[in-house]
Amino acid sequence: MLQVAIEAALEAGKFLKTNVGNIKHIERKIGQETNLVTEIDKQSEAMIIRKIHSHYPLHAILGEEGGSSAQQSEFRWIIDPLDGTTNFTHGLPIFSVTIGVEHKGDMIAGVIYDPNADELFTAEKGKGAFLNGKKISVSTTDTLINSLVVTGFPYNVKENPENVIQHFINFLPVAQGVRRLGSAAIDLAYVACGRFDGYWEVFLNPWDKAAGVLIVKEAGGSVTNFFNDSTDTVFRPNTLASNGRIHQQMLDILHKTLRP
After folding, report:
1. Rounded to whole angstroms, how far apart are CA atoms 96 and 89?
2. Where in the chain do CATH 3.40.190.80 domains reside?
3. Which fold has domain 144-254?
4. Distances in Å between the alpha carbon of 134 and those of 7, 38, 227?
5. Which pLDDT tens digits describe the chain residue by residue (260 residues)?
6. Over the range 78-116, which residues count as b (16 or more CB within 10 Å of their CB) and which as e?
7. Which CATH number fits domain 2-136: 3.30.540.10, 3.30.390.50, 3.40.50.300, 3.40.50.9100?
């Protein structure tokens, strides 16, 4: 299944890269003025689903753009055909394709492909994480002040849900640097390969992080919610991923404005 996910991600990524600047129609999702979707997102998702169903016609699909199927299957593919749509619409080359495979509620394979950098992050449960075929691991940084961390903002950030803005402010003076790239999948991939030491975000959807959660774990990192619960992290909205060494330090910062 990993090979099918790889082939689907590479094909979709090539399609995305060749269509930068060719967007004909941009929609705004209902109730979310800044949450964009284009015909490219939808075509990419359809391409991925065709590839999956050509090999596994009875497997279930959960896709961001509605290309879901509810077959009664032990396997479910969780897809974001274009993670970073806003970047894509502006021609900013930070976007990705991400595909996760779930078996009986457990993530068993994941792929994140950045077509602009031609970087393919992959993982299978129990077999480690890889970047373009070479094994990767999280960083060894053990203090937050020496860490480069990254975050993302939900589409309703103006309402400051769960103190999103305050979390960002709290991290600024205690980390070496804070970044915001605009693709959750790339954020997680960069934690896995040690470019970032930690990442947090509220209200992530399963398709944003299904593959990334597995890749970080297989690279030796930690993934929990904001209360250090590592169960069912793909389907819980709040996500904290780190190299493990600074995990508690990041939790301490998040807890400044959180209540159980």
Report:
1. 13
2. 144-254
3. D-Maltodextrin-Binding Protein; domain 2 (3.40.190)
4. 18, 34, 33
5. 999 999 999 999 999 999 887 776 666 554 545 455 678 888 899 999 999 999 999 999 999 877 666 667 899 999 999 999 999 999 999 999 999 999 999 999 999 999 999 999 999 999 999 999 999 999 999 999 999 999 999 877 777 778 899 999 999 999 999 999 999 999 999 999 999 999 999 999 999 999 999 999 999 999 999 999 999 999 998 999 999 999 999 999 999 987 55
6. bbbbbbbbbbbbeeeebbbbbbbbbeeeebbbbbbbbbb
7. 3.30.540.10
Which stretch of DSSP H or E encloses residue 64?
Answer: none
Q: What is the pTM of this model?
A: 0.93
Residue of 236, 237, 210 lying closest to 101 (CA atoms): 210
The phi and psi torsions of 21 (rounded to 5 degrees) equal 90, -5
Residues in the chain: 260
Q: Which two tokens stand for residue 120?
A: 């393919």
CATH 3.30.540.10 domain locations along the chain: 2-136
Of 122, 127, 131, 120, nearest in space to 2 by CA? 122
Question: CA 238 to CA 184: how far, in whole Å?
Answer: 12
Residues with Cβ within 8 Å of residue 90, at least 6 apart in sequence: none
Alpha-carbon distance of 188 to 159, in angstroms, equals 25
